[in-house]
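Attaching the record inline, Q. Sequence:
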Amino acid sequence: MKRAHNEKGYTLFLVVLMIVVFSVISMSLITVTISGAKRSEVRENVTQAGELAEKGLKHLMNQIDFELQQEIEKVPDGMKKSEFIEKLEVVVDKYTCDELNNIINESNETGEYTACVEEHIDKGSDSLPHKVRIQSKGIADGKNKTLISEVEF
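Structure, as predicted:
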């Protein structure tokens, strides 16, 4: 019995097989890398939205503090507790979420935020400090993050 030992084309077959194997591995690595980059971008946007929401919260708190300080400075001899509470309620009511005009709204290159007073918890109370619930929403590239915080004034 004679066997045919024709190995012509075997090298070509090995080369083509190696090209296919390396192509599949390369495509898998590229896919994994691209999906990882997309997930990273989404996480970055969610984080940015959270930071913008915090910025809105601080902005509104500082604005209320600033307006209260201006009201206090108008009375050179000092303000009675009842007067302060009255001024506090007026200032806080200016930023209620009920009306669009009362909302703090800022935009920049990374996104935007809105902040408003969701509820004046101690409204009508004659004790200090007064609790206020503030809602702040950050938006970065379509991702939203809402923070709700209770603050005392």
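The mean pLDDT is 87. The longest helix spans residues 10-73.

More tomorrow.
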